[in-house]
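Here is a protein:
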Amino acid sequence: MLDAYSGKLAVLCLNPESLTAHQVLAERLNLPLRASLPALEPYFLTWRDGCLKLIDHELVKQGGLYVDVMPRPGEQRSWPAPKDGLFAQALGRKTQTVVDATTGWGQDSLHMFRMGLDVWCFERSPLMAELLSDGWRRLAELDWFIRLGLTAPMLIAKSAILGLTELNFTPECVYLDPMFPAKRKKSALARKNMRVLHELLGSDDDKHELFEVAWQTASKRVVVKLPDYAEPISGTPNQRLQGKLLRYDVYLKNG
């Protein structure tokens, strides 16, 4: 971990009362602990406003990046939400069990969860796994979540290439959202949260291997979310659902 993020990332503690929690986090991720700004590293992790946040010097006054567990604009806030739109169509309206093999910031996993699906989430980056774990904790504290007696998606901090072969069940669908090198220059189209992931984690160079494992694991379909300019991961998909800036390639096991 230290080699991967050396000089790029640190844990920042500006509140002495929370020093112990920050120390534990720094030790768990093998990161340096800083106690003041400006920090030496361009990015840092800290608790702010009840959330674990990833912050850079541009975002110090804006609040930082975190796993947002509230519904996105346009999503219905009831549970379960209707299975509408391209995303639900790609997953399959009769699908119930889904593995998100590339969870990232967790927004697609949370959308699946709000549709009432049973969701398992793989995240191989220890950094993102920490942010996701904090998000799942906050999700479990929401009034409606408690009132309905729900269980948060299962988060597995491991590469899906290894983890999919170790599952003790067969998911109907495996969902992939691999990171691709950005085609466009930095702009409003390249959201801050994705730019940060690219800078800290790079691209998913093993996405073809991941697809093969996903194909062997899923019982009904593999869904791949891609930017509109990207070539298919594997041959010609059975379905191609096109949005404005992205598409879903759907590979059916009995297509």
In short: The longest helix spans residues 126-140. The chain has a mean pLDDT of 88. The chain has two domains: 2-56, 85-252.
